[in-house]
Amino acid sequence: MQTAIPCLFMRGGTSRGPFFKAGDLPADIATRDRVLLAVMGSPDKRQIDGLGGAHPLTSKVGIVSRGSKPGVDLDFLFAQLQPDKDTVDTTPNCGNMLAAVVPFALETGMIRPQGDTTTLRVLTLNTDMQCDITVQTPCGHVEYEGKARIDGAPGSSAPIKISFLDTAGSVAPGLLPSGHVRDLIDGIDVTCIDNGMPLVIFKASAVGRTGYESAEQMNADTALKARIERLRIACGHAMKLGDVTAKNYPKMTLISAPRAGGSISTRSFIPHVCHDAIGVLAAVTVATACVLDGSTTKGIASVPAGNIKNISVEHPTGEFSVEIEVDPANPQNVTRAALLRTARLLMRGEVMVPGSVWAPKSAIFETSAKTA
Q1: Other CB atoms closer than 10 Å to residue 251's CB: what's the count?
Q2: Residue 355: CB partners within 8 Å, gap ≥ 6?
Q3: Rg of the chain over CA atoms, in angstroms?
Q4: Residue pLDDT, tens place only, 27-84
Q5: What number is the average pLDDT over the span 247-251?
Q6: Structure pTM?
Q7: Hey, where are the domains in the chain?
Q8: What 3-state class would DSSP assign to 230?
Q9: Domain spanning 3-159+343-363, CATH class
Q10: Among the four given CATH numbers 3.20.20.70, 3.40.50.360, 3.10.310.10, 2.60.40.10, the one describing domain 183-317
């Protein structure tokens, strides 16, 4: 017998995946993870027996519940799965999937709309980070159609504004976990930084690349990927993250001078596949590095004047704009980061989970042996 679990299949930013109410999933983490692997069809590089899209960006899950802290409306747990692995990682954030949290809560009746717009405070359980998310809700319904465009997602949609309240040290111990704005690690100048996502930022020229290669070229470059992975493991220790060999962070970001009128050009590995665009929180962290004096972005980033700066992060399929506000008394202190995303409900219904998932095979065999 298969078990039916209610879910909404949603696009959030440039990612997509199933969203669940926390209460509809098993409370036991090991059982929950087996369920999510079955839902997505992992491990299998095509994910042919599940809802996954055979890519890390489409192997994501959102889990939502009512807020557990005073002043918080919703709790969000993000789960990153991989097409060909049996891992469920709830350590990092995902700013793209975050964009679909409030629409999901409104669609499922967890929260009532507030008027023409609805603003809710969301706590990301992965990293204990809070943000305010504003969604268009005219006539008491989520509006998905509009004129807002984000590179990496086709067409236009209604805008969703995300204002992050405190992102420094989301996973690593502090904004600059190595204690320095720039380090020489494994022969390469790097900025190890975490303002929402742990990143290692270094010039593409440091690994003999232009930084303007396509994502396809980057992914086919086995020598480059091996060099980046060696650097990533070394930086993981420097960032006090331990052995990151089996972890999805830190992400690796190659930078170069902007070519399309932006502030900086990027190629982001997540961490072993080059992103077609760039993740939300990775863009926030890159933008933060751009305003830190002495970081690896110095000399190539074009940063506007003023305390509120619009940093345009170029990526393989366009650009991602982040609004950064710095403390006038200390320009090295970033006080706020805001950005624009979109989302859409793609499908509502139930996902079917095979009965064998609810108990490990060893337990089934033991039961069968006792019966015999």
Answers
A1: 24
A2: 1, 2, 3
A3: 21
A4: 999 999 999 999 999 999 999 999 999 999 999 999 999 999 999 999 999 999 999 9
A5: 95
A6: 0.77
A7: 3-159+343-363, 183-317
A8: helix
A9: alpha beta
A10: 3.10.310.10
